[in-house]
Records
---
Amino acid sequence: MPTTDELKSRIEAALPDSTAEVEDWTGGGDHFRATVVSPAFAGLSRIQQHRLVYDVFGAEIGGAIHALSLTTKVPEHS
Amino acid sequence: MSDNPIREAIAEAIRDNPTILFMKGTPDAPACGFSARTVAALQTLDAPFAAVDILPDPRIRQELSALSNWPTIPQLFVKGELVGGCDIVLEMLESGELAQALGVEQPDDVEDGAAAAPTRPAPLGIENRLS
């Protein structure tokens, strides 16, 4: 079962200079909520930003990670 | 021409319906909180939309995600383009971008709408019927 720390470190490792806050939404270890801030999102649509994060987990989304609710942001000073 | 009739039918539905939501359950009986909140967002705007329940056949979800390159349900398409899932639709509702994309008026009371604030889903679907 994935943990919030594991999700956080995998997102931060995959997206350059990103910070991620991850919480377990239901306490059940499969519904997560993440806020990700990364300069990699600059100039991308929301769809493209969320895809970058979803791509970190591939087929695990919908599998072990039943749901990953996302908020993505570009840092204010980068 | 099609050796993949399900994917072909999905592509046709997206092409033929200006606003179409792929969801779990139906607008009247959503089977998942994320689908329910996305339906509520569209209803807040009084926007007409077509809805497809992906649950009856697992191949629908599989082919939809292959087509859209988007892993989760719900998925909202407007004019043939993927707009997003629940998170993006709710953000766009609050900012007024959803009304703009759908070509409808932004109501004044969106902030108070049930759909505007994503709420934490209850871990169990227990209704309080005691009070």
Note: Chain A has a mean pLDDT of 93.
---
Amino acid sequence: MNWQADDHAALFRFCERLEHVSWIAAVNNWVVSSVLIELAHYFGFFLLVGTIAAVDLRVLGIIGRRDTDDQLGKQLFPLMWTGLALAILSGFVMFAGQATLYYPNPVFRAKLLVIAFAISFGVVVQANLPKWNRMPSVSNGARLIALVSLLLWVAAILAAVEIPHLTYVP
Amino acid sequence: MFRLVMAFTGWLQNTPLALAVGGSDWAYPYIQLTHFTGLSLWLGTSVAVDLRLLGLIKGTQKPDRLSDALFFLNWIGFGIAIIGGGLLFSISAQNYVLNAAFRTKLGVLLPLALVSHIVVQRKSHAWSQTPKPPVAAKLISSIELMLWLSVAAAAVSIPYF
């Protein structure tokens, strides 16, 4: 991809317009709604990370018996994706409220990149889990994918907490 | 009582560990990471069981099987969350105890949430004996869910008090 200066400028202007959308500004400026949005974001990622971690740790053999009848995955994956949806929706509202600060922020961009990879690995885990559950013993490839999946989500949380620490975004 | 709490928190935030973490220019995000990772494991697994008992998560195996499967990860998550939370607290212990949102979170909401969680965990076997969990199961699972949401809401509100 060859980003021209114009593309960046256009996206930045879009971010400026986002910040001034009336309901976005209103929601982010009222204490009650901004607390609720933050709450939704935290709860969303707690559910997301907790459930995928439970699945990944099982594949890794670190905790729990193998999910030989797929029941754990079947019950947890809907909750994982619901948590992700909640985190993305609330995250967008928070982003939009200060889009011009977040958009150029390298730590925020790193966070989004890590999340993109983490979601991809989550999809791979979900798609392969039935096959892995039927193996006589879990292959090293499967273990590696589960480990990377887990570490990527931890890295996503780390990137998120580094944003206010390393850069000025309140 | 107030003097006792102030004395304890004053001591705590001046311990070598608290001073080292508070004075470090890189450690704080990792303490937050510990707290949030622990909470993810704890709440992800707790909420999954609540939603299963409420029938919002469907499964062919009984809810107590899910609860048993997640039991160890659940409490390991709790332990990690407490370690992270304890370190966060120790950095500015006195400011935290003077904060109404924090006091509500830790003094009122967290104990209630913990009790409701233990009830759900211990009753999950009894509640899984019928095809659909009884009304009591749904009631207490809902209460647990709402209490953890309140704990998180109180935590998020700390900066505003």
Note: The CA atoms of residues 64 and 125 of chain B lie 5 Å apart.
